[in-house]
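Minutes, project check-in
Item: structure for the 395-residue chain
Input as provided by the requester:
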Amino acid sequence: MPQETIIPTDLIHLRGMEAAFPAAEFESRQQWARAAIATAGHEALIVTSPETIYWLTGRQTAGYFAFQALVLPAEGELALLVRQLELPGAISNTWLADVTVYQDGEDPAAALAALVRRLGLANPALERNGWFVSPLMAERIEAAIGAGPLSDGSALLPPLRMVKSPAELEAIRKAAVYAETGLSAAIAACREGVDENAVAAAMMAAAVAAGSEAFGMEPLVSSGPRSGLPHMTWRRRAMETGDAVFLEMAASHARYHSAMMRTAFIGRPSDEAARMMDCALVALEAALAAIRPGVPASAPHDAAQRVIDAAGYTAAFRKRIGYSMGVAFAPDWGEGTILSLFTSVDTLLEPGMVFHLPATLRAYGRFTVGASETVIVTESGCDVLSTLPRGIAVR
């Protein structure tokens, strides 16, 4: 029986016009999700994270700061709740037939409870770890639904996102081209007297001109002593001879991201920086060589860590070697909360998984050196998505 369409008749013509993928792509994901919900013994899951809502439906907007929720029953059709202003966009970038709204000034928790009741659900699980579900909001949702504490369903769907479909991998490959274009432009812009803002502008302009959509996180551009501090962004500093320049960005296609990091120097790098860079590159190669189906996610990290420890740079690393990539919304460009390449992570690698591996060594407050690659796990190893040289770019 065809599903009843519960969207305004004057907006039906918008349905799916901005969808990132065909309806069948999302229907497959929804079926996997329903099976996971049923296996866990829940009648439904209220999905709140923008990444998972997008993965299930294609719903994307810059207005995801406003509360939204997707109700996914183990059996039956799903329904989306959004702010009234977001209704036309939600219809146009999804294939959903049931999109309902709450008004500005209305309690979204009460609107969600009304939707749950309309769908005939009594006690759904709740995805609590979405960026915009605070403990207070979770309490309001529970009070409005009136079934007592709701089970936490946060862990149900992330495992389904680990292995990417062919359509997802195609989007990530396109994003990798955009990121490499941006990094190449950033390196070309680095020279004495140029400030960090000009380099960041060149990086972003090139990536966007190449095709990139919105970034899940701003690019990282820092020079001189600032480059020795993690996650610094551009701040008008003019580059001087002897400066290291740290460059990292993730570009996106259909919200799927690919990241890349490189190191430049204004003039010849010091012997110390050159030695550390050599170590970082060997560590990256060791990690890449360890990636293959059937090995635990700890193996690439452990391979890189052994190289770094043997060279005496343990204190300059102190982090995981990589994390999964895919759908991303700000404030992050990765899927690092889903799967990390790190010590003791025993999830086995599978073909179709995607990771970003930043091999960075830092002399804190002085410089950072290293390089990164985004890779797809294949049947025999991994496919590196860039061709940009990894060594220090001397400018």
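Outcome recorded: The longest strand covers residues 367-377.
No further action items on this chain.
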